[in-house]
């Protein structure tokens, strides 16, 4: 195998004026015992022998954790000239659902950053920090922290880290630093932040964007009736890529909208455009399968062939007591009820969770009756903004903010928290009600429910961690539509 060349070092972060061919290095996960041995030797020389931060050895439980990732800086000749490790935070407690001691809930720390003392001036340290942030993001980390010696604070701050307090380790002053991946905020911005401005013309007409109390709901009560209507479009790229799944989802998301309002579905209308007859057949097959599974007929609609792919569905239902998204108040508890069965849809890993396509019809119908039977003060089905972003939308409609207890959120085994809080989860309902309100009953197997937060007076969405720290996920309202 050829050694890495200087040109491969895209994360080197070299200071201006330095010759990359002289100081080139590659940041890579440690893949051999030689890498690990060299890294630990450098750590011992720096933290035990020279700085005396530790006595005897700096090896700890993090080194024994199989989840720990070690990154090393390697020269073209194969010499390790720096390293850092990152791992899930240790010691915060036991997950009461799984019984696992300190599971990965998206809270990670970086530590033992070390650089060959003869090469401190060529950007290895910043490159290792940047690479650690990139790998943390890839693993769905939502809170990434490091405790660094005070002289290194400036470097971390320059790289976008926040100073969150001082402490002392081994008699030396240290600073606790935190880096925000902004994953939740970016998803909310991409999927929902434009709505208020884009939809403003509708609000100029009386009744535009729905009756009072229901502004911002995906479904809306039709004035003067007990009918609730909902409408969703599927991304054209999804229709092109996976027509049958797009057809299934067009029914799923609309029936979820009705379910969030406690409505009983009565029928569907569709508007379908397809490039070819084959594509149309697959779209219709997906819709028909879903309509049959939920027992809701497609009543009619509009179909075109030989046009760019498009798919939109309207769902109709009835209820005399529609549940609004904005009916709760500060102090009310947030509950998430979510189907954790299934898996990532092929081709949409980390973005779309498929728990419905293999469910029995009676399970699907029981899940969609949950809000109707529970009759909470507020409810919203989880959309493409994910659990966290949809929580922000519900809070915004209520005129409040929200705080999510990260460790309490039900989650499938092996799924990282960052993906789970930002994906479309198939079936997930957020409800808000007074503290002590009874949990839903009669849920199908693998549908989990838990109180996982509360509504607050501070706008936006914050994540509460097991150590009591809160971090900001979304600074303010998600859609800008305001109180419902």
UniProtKB/TrEMBL annotation:
Ranges where the N-acetyltransferase domain occurs: 25-182
Enzyme Commission number(s): 2.3.1.-
Record keyword Acyltransferase present: yes
Swiss-Prot/TrEMBL keywords: Acyltransferase, Transferase
Any Gene Ontology biological process: thiamine biosynthetic process
Enzyme class name: transferase
Gene Ontology terms, MF aspect: acyltransferase activity, transferring groups other than amino-acyl groups; thiamine-phosphate kinase activity
Classification via Pfam families: Acetyltransf_1, AIRS, AIRS_C
UniProt entry tagged with the keyword Lipid metabolism: no
InterPro entries, per the entry: Acyl_CoA_acyltransferase, GNAT_dom, MSMEG_0567/sll0787_C, MSMEG_0567_GNAT, PurM-like_C_dom, PurM-like_C_sf, PurM-like_N, PurM-like_N_sf
Annotated PANTHER family: THIAMINE-MONOPHOSPHATE KINASE
NCBIfam families: MSMEG_0567_Cter, MSMEG_0567_GNAT
Protein name, entry field: GNAT family N-acetyltransferase
Organism of derivation: Williamsia herbipolensis
């Amino acid at each position: 195998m050829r050694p890495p060349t200087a040109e491969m070092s895209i994360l080197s972060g070299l200071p201006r004026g330095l010759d990359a061919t002289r100081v080139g290095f590659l940041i890579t996960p440690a893949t051999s015992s030689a890498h690990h041995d060299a890294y630990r030797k450098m750590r011992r020389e720096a933290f035990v022998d020279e700085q005396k931060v530790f006595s005897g050895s700096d090896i700890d439980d993090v080194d024994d954790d199989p989840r720990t990732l070690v990154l090393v800086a390697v020269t073209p000749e194969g010499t390790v000239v720096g390293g850092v490790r990152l791992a899930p935070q240790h010691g915060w407690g036991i997950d009461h659902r799984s019984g696992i001691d300190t599971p990965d809930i998206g809270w990670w720390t970086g530590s033992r950053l070390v650089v060959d003392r003869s090469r401190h001036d060529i950007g290895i340290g910043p490159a290792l920090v940047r690479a650690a942030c990139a790998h943390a993001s890839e693993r769905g980390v939502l809170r990434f922290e490091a405790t660094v010696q005070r002289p290194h604070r400036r470097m971390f701050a320059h790289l976008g880290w926040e100073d969150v307090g001082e402490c002392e380790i081994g008699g030396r002053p240290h600073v606790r630093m935190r880096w925000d991946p902004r994953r939740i905020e970016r998803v909310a911005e991409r999927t929902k932040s434009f709505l208020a401005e884009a939809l403003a013309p509708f609000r100029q007409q009386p009744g535009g964007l729905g009756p009072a109390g229901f502004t911002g709901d995906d479904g809306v009560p039709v004035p003067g009736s007990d009918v609730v209507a909902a409408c969703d479009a599927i991304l054209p790229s999804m229709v092109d890529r996976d027509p049958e799944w797009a057809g299934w989802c067009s029914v799923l998301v609309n029936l979820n909208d009705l379910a969030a309002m406690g409505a009983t579905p009565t029928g569907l209308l569709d508007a379908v455009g397809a490039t070819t007859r084959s594509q149309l057949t697959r779209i219709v097959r997906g819709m028909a399968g879903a309509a049959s599974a939920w027992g809701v007929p497609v009543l009619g609609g509009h179909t075109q062939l030989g046009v760019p792919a498009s798919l939109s569905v309207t769902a109709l239902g009835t209820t005399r007591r529609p549940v609004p998204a904005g009916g709760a108040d500060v102090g009310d508890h947030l509950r998430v009820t979510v189907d954790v069965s299934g898996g990532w849809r092929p081709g949409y890993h980390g973005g779309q969770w498929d728990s419905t396509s293999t469910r029995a019809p009676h399970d699907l119908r029981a899940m969609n009756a949950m809000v109707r039977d529970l009759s909470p003060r507020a409810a919203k089905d989880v959309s493409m903004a994910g659990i966290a972003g949809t929580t922000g939308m519900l809070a915004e409609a209520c005129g409040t903010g929200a705080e999510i207890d990260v460790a309490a959120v039900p989650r499938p085994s092996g799924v990282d928290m960052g993906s789970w809080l930002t994906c479309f989860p198939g079936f997930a309902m957020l409800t808000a009600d007074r503290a002590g309100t009874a949990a839903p009953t009669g849920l199908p197997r693998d549908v989990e429910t838990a109180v996982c937060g509360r509504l607050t007076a501070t706008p936006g969405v914050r994540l509460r961690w097991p150590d009591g720290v809160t971090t900001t996920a979304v600074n303010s309202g998600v859609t800008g539509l305001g109180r419902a």
